[in-house]
Amino acid sequence: MNNLVLINLILTASIVLSPVSIAGTAQGSTHAIAIKMSSFNLSSQKWQNRVLLVFAPSVNNRTYQQQMQLFNQHQNGFKDRDLVLVQVLATDKSYANGQLIDESSVANLRDRFGVDKDNFRVILVGKDGGVKRQDTTPVPATEIFEQIDAMPMRQQEMQQRGRK
Fold first, then answer.
1. Which of 11, 82, 101, 124 could be stapled to 133 by a disulfide with Cβ–Cβ 3.0 to 4.6 Å?
2. Which of 140, 143, 98, 80 is CA-nearest to residue 3?
3. Under a CB-based contact definition with an 8 Å cutoff, are residues 92 and 98 in contact?
4. What pLDDT, on a 0 to 100 scale, did the predictor assign at position 2?
């Protein structure tokens, strides 16, 4: 089982198994479950992180599963390149670096990049907020890393971090 699927399963289990807050009426008949969701705003990432968006219909989508397997074992590469992985799914929960994001954020990302709910797409957004690549088929993490490593801003980061 790849790490991202495992992380998502653990997160889902922790949400399901965590204590729920119950808001009751006088009779105690109304129950509400509080699940922490965050909004994800692409502009808040600008100049801080690169963003890798993976759009797919669901976690059961074969292309999405292939893509997640290609990213498996590359968490350090993502972290080293300040790369935030955002999984934008139509029928399942969506996540930004493992944190659940709300439906309005998902809708905003789909609208902004013009990706239909039935389509698979991988989009790399640079620290400057510009789209650096778009793929409609699974792409190896190493290919994305090579493209990022060739960017002038990344070259500066590597020099500043003492690696060239």
1. 124
2. 98
3. no
4. 53
